[in-house]
Structures are given as structure tokens and as C-alpha cells.
Specification:
alpha+beta, 3 helices, 11 strands, globular
Amino acid sequence: MRVSLAILAGLCLSLLPLAASGETYTSDQYGFSAEFPAEPVAGKPQGAETDAKGKFISNSVMFKTQVMGVYTAMVTVESYTVPMNINSSSRLQMMAQIFAADYGGRVTSSTPGKLDGHRARFFSYEKPDHSSGGNGVVVVVQDKLPRAYMAVSMHTSLASEGDIAALDKFVASFHVK
């Protein structure tokens, strides 16, 4: 009887849907939407950029879903708390380069463009040993209180073709308001 209950419990659990898999996640507060491979977890906002006096003038928050050692899909949003004019062309290039370097990799392609009417840079990156890589987009929304976004995917050789397709769809589905 114990075996039957264990099998029944396993069957019931297998019928539960994955949390928001394949659904569009929208953050009205941070002004973006994307189709994450699974329900993302939002981090706590943290101070990011400071002014000359050391006071934070922007906050950063990350939304992420991952399967450890297989893939990660994340969106980082930096929101300014004071009026600011951002040099978007240098910021876009810099964000992609810094991300790849922090990851221990290098940018392999980088193309300027537009996303939802805002300046953007689409890029790919990988580690030197080709063990992992991915693609992403960075976007600067020039507004009274500007925002900078980065949506990136990463996968290792353990990712299936389906995982990689879901990650590509995630980056392609990213939009800002």
C-alpha cells in the first residue's frame, strides 16, 4: 500500500503545471515584460550608482529564473531616482562589456538597434573555453527619471535544445514600456 501511495503522490505532482512556464511576466513597477522559461524570482532593490557625495542616485533590481548548472534567464533594471541625462550609446556598449567580463567571458557580437523606440544593443557572449554563453539586449529609456535594462540568457553544454529555444524566446520577448 505504501508503494501505491508513493506512486499516486508522484503522479499527482507530475500533473501540476510548471510555475508560469511559457507565460509572459510583466512588471508594471519596473516597466518591462518578458517570457521567462519559469516564474522569475525578484531580488530586493539595491543602491547602484552614486553622486559625487556618495549618495545613491539609482537603484538596481534583478529578476531571475535558473536551473543551476544548466541555464539562467535574468532581467536587471536600474532606475534613477533623480533627473539624469544618460549617454546611451556609451552606456549600452559598456553594460554588455561589463556583464561579459563579470561572467568571465567576452562579447562575441554586438549590434546597435532599437527596442520599443529606445536605443538598444543586442549582443552574444561566451566563456573562452566555450563551456557556456548566451545572448542579451541592453536598453536605455531616456525619461525624466531614466531606466537602464539588461535582459540576458546563459546556458551551459547541459542545456537541451528546448532550453536554448526557451532562452532565445525569452530574450526575443523582452519589451520595455
